[in-house]
User: Fold this.
Amino acid sequence: MMDSSIKKNQGRCPVIISLFSFADALLGETLAMDVRILAEEATVEDFLTALDQFAAAQLADCRGCDGCCHERAPLIAADIPRLAGLLAPSAAPAHMVCSNLALLTVNADGAADITMRRQADGACSSLQRTEKFCCIWQARPFVCRSHFCTPRSPRFSDLRESIVNRGENELTRLLLAEEAAGAAPLPEGALAARLNPADYAISPISGKLSYASLKIRDCVDDDLWQRLCAENDPCA
Ligand code: SF4
Ligand code: SF4
Assistant:
């Protein structure tokens, strides 16, 4: 059952990021990040804004560390406009971004995985190695903007994972649509021959190509939504 504060949230950020203390079996008493949603209209942009403000106030600066730039960095459809802004204008921006910055693989069960392209040792291709900074910082994808090497509550991790999974599927749908409209095939080859377009149907997030237009409610299932809205229950 949704609490009444969710409907009354007017004039303040509809996403709250906070720290809570929990007893970890290995580390003992530990602080972790939590997220709570206060309004139906909360967007991924609200989540990222709340995270930026929280990080500036509570977390150490990442400068000089490139730890998480050696991990898989999947892309979502809402990342495309900002990344496309780094490249030449194109009638098929998802193809333009994926051809220049990403790698598309198809796993054994036929699902597409679209990630930032990597260097030979696994580092992201947009990582400047000697100075250890991101060459596309202002346009870096959601998965990078929402990652901090701080323990997270289950609902925080589940929210991030759900946005990435649904957003990556929507990006695949977008690529298939661009291909059907005549875009030149990706370097990895034509997608329609490798994927089943029926697996990438229109969804509530289709066409939401900015973080501000992407509602969190449309990125999560009912169970996770209830957990995200629950008050004082970071371990939900
Ligand atoms: S989030 Fe942590 S691991 Fe990643 S770059 Fe920042 S300090 Fe390094
Ligand atoms: S896009 Fe930037 S922040 Fe993200 S993994 Fe690559 S170098 Fe790191």
In short: The chain has a mean pLDDT of 91. The radius of gyration is 19 Å. The first strand starts at residue 15 and ends at 24.
